[in-house]
Amino acid sequence: MEECMILTTLLASLALLTSSNCSESKEDDNLLIRALQKQQIDARSVIWDDPQNNWKDYQAVLVFSTWDYHTDKFNFFLQTLGNIEKQGIPLFNPLSTIRWNASKVYLKKLAEKGVKVIDSIYLSSKDLKNLPNLLEKYGWEECVIKPSISASGDHTFRFNSSTVQEMQAHFEGYPCDLIVQPFMKEIMTEGEWSFIFFEKEFIHCVLKKPADGQFLVQSAHGGSVQPVTPPDWMINEVKKILLATEQPYLHARVDVIKKGSALAVVEVEMIEPSLFLSYFPGSADKLAQKIKERLSASLTPLEPRSKGRTSL
């Protein structure tokens, strides 16, 4: 029987940015790549700082699992994304949003707009000598300290007045500002709620809890993840939080804790948020559809390519 070639028209070629040391997120990466391919988007996993990258090979770039951006590569990370945008390549999320979100000082900006965030003190490594006085001034018996530019719980510590000198020694000369917050016992008792949004639409939610004897909820630190259905009032409050950022985004995650009948923001993640796609069948398809809708409005489809052969 005669064979013929089936042709499919690709909408775009998309680089899904990841990092060379990223293994934990590969399941979500692969889920999204397959979902994008179903939408005629040729998606490929690309290590963001690979010197062999030629961004002209792609018609769109999605920052997805670049979980080493906050290290000594931070400035190069922003420079790389800037080069992508300068070439007119659609970047998700846009660089303006990523710059806004890169330093956790954005929490202060949200608080100034009336958003409830965990009480925070911002200080440079030069101000560490004042750390004992700050604990006494605010009456905080136990605290958390972390860099203002960080991810995955790196260099995040729980301490009190008896261990404050250890924190001073650890962060002496640290290259970015630091954040000190009171330790929130709700993390241990109830956990941290993570709300996932695609283009202002609530998608799903998980409840993260630390392992026994720990306080960090990330899975890399032994934390657990449980899919949950949050009440409508929580979803509506998180929508207000995202609105207060005034930032455009394709995908975002908002982490909060419950304090009685109110929410307090732990973090708003708009750079490379864990989206927990593998916990919710169909969620990768929803994100792929959002990406397709954005690209369809601005791009000319690529030339048809071979999808395979079939017999007639």
Number of domains: 3
Strand order of the largest sheet: 12-11-10-13-14
Number of strands: 15
Examine the coordinates and then state which fold CATH places here, giving the name of the CATH topology of the largest domain. Rossmann fold
Structural class: alpha+beta
H and E string: EEHEEHEHHEHEEHEHEEEHEEHE
Give the structure's gist in a few sentences.
28% of the residues lie in helices and 30% in strands.
Description:
- The chain has 312 residues and is α+β, with helices and mostly antiparallel strands.
- 28% of the residues lie in helices and 30% in strands.
- The strands form four sheets. Strands 12-11-10-13-14 form a five-stranded antiparallel sheet.
- The chain is globular.
- The model is unreliable at 1-7 and 305-312 (pLDDT under 50).
List keywords for this structure.
D-amino Acid Aminotransferase, Chain A, domain 1, alpha+beta, Rossmann fold, disordered C terminus, 5-stranded antiparallel sheet, 9 helices, 3 domains, 4-stranded parallel sheet
